[in-house]
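Reader question, answered in our methods column.
A reader sent in the components of a multi-part assembly and asked whether the whole thing could be modeled at once rather than chain by chain. We filled in our standard form and ran it. Here is what they sent:
COMPLEX SIZE: four components
ENTRIES:
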Amino acid sequence: MGERSVNLKALAAHLGLTVSTVSRALNDYADISPATRKRVKLAADQLGYRPNQNARRLSIGTPETICYLMPRQIGPNAQPFVAQLLAGLGEALNERNWDLLVSQADASVGDLASIERLVKSGRIAGLVISRPLKNDPRVRLMQNLGCPFVVHGRTEKCDGYAWYDVDGEDAFVTAVNHLARLGHRRIGFIGAPLQYQFAQERLDGYNRGLTHNGLSQDPELVQIAEFTDEGGTAAAGILMDLPRPPTAIVCVTDMMALGALEALHARKIRPGTDVSVIGYDGLYFGKHAHPPLTTLAQPQAHAGRRLGDILLSIIDGADPTKFQELQRAHLVQRSTDGPVTSNTGQTIVSEREDSL
Amino acid sequence: MGERSVNLKALAAHLGLTVSTVSRALNDYADISPATRKRVKLAADQLGYRPNQNARRLSIGTPETICYLMPRQIGPNAQPFVAQLLAGLGEALNERNWDLLVSQADASVGDLASIERLVKSGRIAGLVISRPLKNDPRVRLMQNLGCPFVVHGRTEKCDGYAWYDVDGEDAFVTAVNHLARLGHRRIGFIGAPLQYQFAQERLDGYNRGLTHNGLSQDPELVQIAEFTDEGGTAAAGILMDLPRPPTAIVCVTDMMALGALEALHARKIRPGTDVSVIGYDGLYFGKHAHPPLTTLAQPQAHAGRRLGDILLSIIDGADPTKFQELQRAHLVQRSTDGPVTSNTGQTIVSEREDSL
DNA sequence: AGGCTATCCGAAACCGGTTTCGGCACGCAA
DNA sequence: TTGCGTGCCGAAACCGGTTTCGGATAGCCT
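And here is the structure of the entire assembly that came back:
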């Protein structure tokens, strides 16, 4: 309230100079004498002058803002990663004093329209897309609009734009290898709807891991469900009620794996002893699961920072196809994986490491 | 790329009208004939015209944007609520086509400066402060700047501005009452640093609950630690290693409660049987803890939406002090609470409900 | 026919900055 | 003394919209 915040005109009047002179002084133009520059900056500090960013950005022709497209969430299961991701993005943007906008939009028609409005209205210089579908209309839209963007994840056909992803296929090969080494030969897979590219990749990795270890692909061992804990519970229930149930299960997310554990408990099956379970994400809470969940952890501490840097580079004119970065997940062994055991329930204790 | 997006001048030229006429037509001014209005809007649609928001907002004098001040996180423990909160805020803003900015800032000197820059630069019309300290300089700063704001949580002296909070004191009275009814007379408290107002409130509730049930306040039963799971583990360890350990523990957050469970397990103490543990937050993952964590759940599905609506009202000129809303937490009984038992470990099974 | 009002649109100022251009005053060399 | 280049600042256009104001045209009435 009180007086309006001091603007350039007021500052110029205070100094007895014109706005153009003051503006150039503040922006370190060489044609302003050092003495005047100093005097102007001092007065600006004292009066607490801050340039109006709307006006400035209109003038310089860039919004100096990027947008993070937050996926819509399903149910109360929080998205524990967005805070960390936003923090990383913010860090990258802060160095230039750019702003971070957040908008919620998935691949629905209405959301596509709002994305188009957002871009065309000149509010943002680029955006980050999360959790893409196999064939995501948001990606095509961005390409048609000619608006810089980077995808956190990949689509099925992922050449031609920038993305940053964790290699889910490789991760599931690793998981199956690990279980095969423990003696498992019937390994179940709990997946998410295959419209999501990450779900397809992880299923591919599972299958590749099976053949690599000389195991046959049994269709009844593959269960697709919604990626919530309830989905995991339902899928694991189906798997364990099979005539020949698996001795190990890999799950497409930790949340589903937690749900799977419930199904095992309900059947008095001991996870890690009777049946192994491996999740994916590296969810921190997995530590406190019962028993602590073995998982494939994504290195996502720097995802936000990296996505921000990539997007800024593209906005600066870099070739988007130069930025296609694949990170590797690593196995965090906690307590839900173990060797195959006989029906007596006897188990062989092996060394455990709990990094992170 | 390609052609620049069509602006008002181009649209006017295309129609053979002036920009002022087109602008008024689009904004439904009465002095533009209905026929012209229709013609203009049709052409705008066909050409895909979207007004430049930076220009528009500069002209109309409001940034049409609010900012969520995201608290800096500590360690890898994600903040599971921010996604939900942002979704709610976005929902409130969408109805007006306002934007949501996210900035990370706590109460440090450097962050205060960046908040001041943000406000003075005219980028935002208001902001949301989260997780305030007892005496939070951000609140004072906003008051001095005369910038509309709403606090998610409260400071110690919380009259004079708008806030939305859950009654932590009441919640902890409820928790202590519940435990007292189960027969517990030595109840421990695991708290967070008292510079956070929520930590103080919950401690106050704990103490009030004790006296209300005729229990004495034993200082050694109050342990303050960092609000992480490790902090909870350490604090619970101290409590359980006491000569006269408590038979029940209330924890200031679910994360700390999960840590406390680890300390119990390490000592072969069965949570819910030998020692009761009650957390606070209603964290979804508590369902999968070992055993499932009893907790006081905050009704936070609508927090974001409500905070957004409140802030918009204040920006519209409403009196901030009219918006001081206190929600109640409710007990979600899972499996870590139970009656006091003798040393034999015998337990009385009681009914459980697991709402949510 | 003349005057008056209502209708509709164009002209121009403005929001608050940035940036190009031109000109004044000065110093220096011829 | 004149001329010229240089240093320094002011004037003005511009970014892309909104909004006030004034004027032209048409219609209506007497």
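What stands out: The first strand of chain A starts at residue 65 and ends at 70. Residues 65-167+301-328 of chain A form a domain with the Rossmann fold fold (CATH 3.40.50.2300).
Send us your own complexes using the same form.
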